[in-house]
Automatic annotation (TrEMBL):
<dbReference type="GO" id="GO:0009986">
    <property type="term" value="C:cell surface"/>
</dbReference>
<feature type="transmembrane region" description="Helical">
    <location>
        <begin position="561"/>
        <end position="581"/>
    </location>
</feature>
<feature type="compositionally biased region" description="Pro residues">
    <location>
        <begin position="518"/>
        <end position="535"/>
    </location>
</feature>
<keyword id="KW-0812">Transmembrane</keyword>
<comment type="function">
    <text>Cell surface proteoglycan.</text>
</comment>
<dbReference type="GO" id="GO:0016477">
    <property type="term" value="P:cell migration"/>
</dbReference>
<keyword id="KW-0336">GPI-anchor</keyword>
<keyword id="KW-1003">Cell membrane</keyword>
<dbReference type="GO" id="GO:0009966">
    <property type="term" value="P:regulation of signal transduction"/>
</dbReference>
<protein>
    <submittedName>
        <fullName>Glypican-2</fullName>
    </submittedName>
</protein>
<dbReference type="GO" id="GO:0098552">
    <property type="term" value="C:side of membrane"/>
</dbReference>
<keyword id="KW-0357">Heparan sulfate</keyword>
<dbReference type="GO" id="GO:0005886">
    <property type="term" value="C:plasma membrane"/>
</dbReference>
<keyword id="KW-0325">Glycoprotein</keyword>
<keyword id="KW-0472">Membrane</keyword>
<dbReference type="GO" id="GO:0007224">
    <property type="term" value="P:smoothened signaling pathway"/>
</dbReference>
<keyword id="KW-0732">Signal</keyword>
């Protein structure tokens, strides 16, 4: 009865038609073509042997939504690896600006500073040979040793600039004292006595202190800058070489290649989805931000010092000038100096074939010392100058601040990586085409507590990132001390000496424009036998009387360096294991 009524209401022809259509619609949805997906997959260099021709059921999928799909299990696994490769390539490409800048600037500054030292030595040799003739060439080893030690310091050697310059002036005072008193023969012991009283007599006036202040500040800043640029290069190299965790890879696959598996290869992930995924993947890297910004600021400030009062060009240029002025000062005051030395050290022996004459008479027939004018100095052919190098560096340093914390934004702003922020309704939201609703999370490890895309273990900070943070702190500390003219390797010795001389806050009065003009050194009281004198220096008896022992105690150098390394090690351990104590 029911069938008869049904047949009367719906004719057989209509029923057959509906049945046929219902059978057709089901397979149509499931057999949608996968040609676009296969084409994109092949373009990436993969075989399409496992790629379906039409959509199949997605029950086998582990990462993408289990709807109809154009991806086999093997394709999904392959594309997951591809998403990790794309992510690491994006990090590498984005950080290339940093790496290139640090590498090129390090090379340019290092080449420039080394050339400055070479030109300074060449200038001194040329001018002193012209000015003093054989007097210089016979004593050239004193000046050569100075530049050997300056180069060793700049190259990172365990050399104290204070000791280097003190040794140079000690050797020079012996040479010049012998030259202004050629009628006498001085033993090693007598010259040691001359050296003991040199600090009180100040035979070179105030010039050793002025040169020491200028050279130390400039060399410390130059070395710190070059080392800082090398550190920046190494930090970027290490930070950019990431390894994506399993949770990160799953999220990357879902945002970049699940649309491909759904047969919509041109659909880009929503901008907010991209940010959440990358903030989760780069949570530890973003924690570099604070120390990275401090490091960049310190580099910037040291470069400004080199451009201003710690000018390396000026310091290198002034070595020969101030040494020449010092020699001239000693010659002009040779009578008073020699008289005081003879009173304190006794009368020296006459040289064979010489008669006793006064210092004034003995110097009358010799070629006088003189200073040379700036016009006589050879010009540098470096092809650039410090102002230009510093200006270019500062221009490149400015955009580096905040690099690591803004890295997710930089990558997601690429149209090939994510949809435009204005295209919120026509993008991939992780499941289908449509608006992405979750909020964008904060920055850094602690900002990922509510990240809906990547599960981040906030209780276990990345050891590698903590080590990079410690390296940045050490480098920043060195740069900040360099801004004050202090070398962290010799803080215990050189800071005390600098504070004792009263030169800690002094600027270059006679070399830097805008400061007070040069004033003559203050006079010292007469030699007093009760005044404490410098301890004798150890001589190398195996060589000539001018040779100094090259064996210096390294304890003063190694102790600060060892202490810094020990502190760095224990801080790294504490930062690593701290979460485990909770």
């Amino acid at each position: 009865m029911v069938s008869r009524l049904y047949a009367q209401k719906y004719p057989p022809v209509l029923l057959c038609t509906l049945a046929a259509l219902s059978w057709t619609w089901g397979p149509v949805t499931a057999s949608r073509s996968c040609s676009e997906t296969r084409h994109v997959y092949a373009e990436k260099g993969y075989s399409t042997n496992t790629a379906p021709l039409t959509q199949i059921s997605g029950e086998h999928l582990r990462l993408c939504p289990q709807d109809y799909t154009c991806c086999s299990s093997q394709m999904e696994e392959t594309l997951a690896h591809q998403s990790e490769t794309d992510f690491l390539s994006a990090i590498d490409d984005t950080s290339q600006f940093l790496l290139t800048t640090f590498t090129q600037r390090h090379h340019k500054f290092d080449e420039f500073f080394r050339e400055l030292i070479d030109l300074s030595e060449k200038s001194m040799n040329q001018m002193f040979t012209k000015t003093y003739g054989r007097l210089f060439t016979q004593n050239a080893n004193v000046f050569q040793e100075l530049f050997v030690e300056l180069r060793r310091y700049y190259s990172g050697g365990s050399v104290s600039l204070t000791e280097v310059l003190s040794e140079f002036w000690s050797r020079l005072v012996e040479r010049v004292f012998s030259l202004v008193n050629p009628q006498y023969q001085f033993s090693d012991e007598y010259l040691e006595c001359v050296n003991k009283h040199a600090e009180q007599l100040q035979p070179f006036g105030d010039l050793p202190r002025k040169l020491g202040l200028q050279v130390s500040r400039a060399f410390i800043a130059a070395r710190a800058l070059v080392q800082g640029l090398a550190t920046g290069r190494d930090i970027v190299n290490k930070a950019a070489k990431l390894s994506a965790g399993a949770g990160c890879v799953r999220a990357l696959m879902r945002q970049w290649y699940c649309p491909l598996c759904r047969g919509m290869p041109s659909l880009r992930p929503c901008h907010a989805l991209c940010l959440n995924v990358l903030k989760g993947c780069l949570a530890n890297t973003a924690d570099l931000d604070t120390e990275w910004n401090n490091f960049i600021d310190a580099l910037y400030q040291v470069s400004e010092k080199l451009e201003g009062p710690f000018n390396m060009e000026l310091a290198a240029d002034s070595i020969s000038v101030k040494v020449s002025e010092a020699i001239m000062h000693m010659q002009e005051n040779s009578i008073a100096t020699s008289t005081k030395v003879f009173q304190g050290c006794g009368s020296p022996r006459l040289a064979p074939g010489r008669s006793r004459r006064s210092p004034k008479e003995s110097g009358g027939n010799r070629r006088p010392f003189r200073t040379f004018s700036p016009e006589e100095k050879p010009t540098t052919a470096a092809g650039t100058n410090l102002d230009r190098l510093v200006s270019e560096l500062k221009e490149r340093l400015r955009p580096m601040r905040g690099f690591w914390v803004s890295l997710p934004h930089t990558i997601c702003n690429d149209k090939n990586m994510a949809a435009d922020v204005t295209n919120e309704d026509r993008c991939w939201n992780g499941q289908t085409r449509g608006r992405y609703l979750p909020d964008v999370t904060g920055d850094g490890l602690m900002g990922q507590i509510n990240n809906p895309e990547v599960e981040v273990d906030m209780a276990r900070p990345d050891v590698r990132t903590r080590q990079l943070i410690m390296e940045l702190r050490v480098a920043t500390n060195r740069l900040k001390h360099a801004q004050a003219g202090q070398d962290t390797d010799f803080m215990d010795s050189e800071v005390e000496e600098g504070s004792g001389s009263g030169g800690g806050g002094e600027r270059y009065s006679d070399d830097w424009p805008g400061y007070r003009p040069y004033s003559p050194p203050y006079s010292k009281p007469p030699l007093n036998p009760q005044t404490p004198i410098k301890p004798p220096r150890v001589r190398d008896r195996t060589g000539s009387k001018w040779n100094r022992s090259k064996g210096r105690s390294i304890s003063a150098v190694s102790r600060p360096a060892f202490f810094s390394l020990a502190v760095l090690f224990w801080l790294s351990v504490m930062v690593t294991v701290a979460p485990m104590w909770r």
